[in-house]
Amino acid sequence: MSKKILKEFGLRIKELRQERGLTQEQFATKCGLHKNYIGMIERGERNPSLINIEIIAKGLEISISKLMKF
């Protein structure tokens, strides 16, 4: 499995989070996820489940398809 997609996905989340002026902690709280988990996703260290991808998209107030455009 290529880790490249995990890094690209993580960067996408980080960019969108920062555009909204949210810290990792603020974003994690909004999503109901742990801030360390968000950090690990943003660094490409974790492969989030589809359920968590949906939670992240909702936290960013965008669709999953828009989140996946990277």
Automatic annotation (TrEMBL):
Top-level taxon of the source organism: Bacteria
InterPro entries: Cro/C1-type_HTH, Lambda_DNA-bd_dom_sf, TransReg_Diox_bact_type
Chain ranges of the HTH cro/C1-type domain: 13-67
Gene3D superfamilies referenced in this protein's UniProt entry, alphabetically: lambda repressor-like DNA-binding domains
Keywords: DNA-binding, Transcription, Transcription regulation
One Pfam family linked to the record: HTH_3
PANTHER family, A to Z: HTH-TYPE TRANSCRIPTIONAL REGULATOR, HTH-TYPE TRANSCRIPTIONAL REGULATOR SUTR
Protein name: Helix-turn-helix transcriptional regulator
Record organism: Sphingobacterium thermophilum
